[in-house]
Design brief:
With 88 residues, the chain is an all-alpha fold. Helices cover 84% and strands 0% of the residues. It has two helices and no strands. Helix 1 packs across helix 2. The longest helix is centred in the last third of the chain and has 41 residues. It is flat and about 70 Å long.
Amino acid sequence: MSFLDKAAYILAPGTLVVGLLYFYGSTYTDAYYSFFGVPPRDLQLSVQGYLANSPRAIFFPLVILFVLGLGLLTVLLSINHVRGVVRQ
């Protein structure tokens, strides 16, 4: 395996995360300021500005996914526990 192949395992996930944060940050910022009638291009935000705004946009969906995952895990563990009790 070459150095570039090894580097791709590290760089690609990081690039994906930064890209998603930029997308959510820019979408959130554009929607927020457009609601108040401020053209987002007039803000002249940098890439860091959009990345700083992304946690607000991505926090709620991640919390929902986390809660759904915990609920699913609880159901699966309960089913596994009941199946273990029935076998004995």
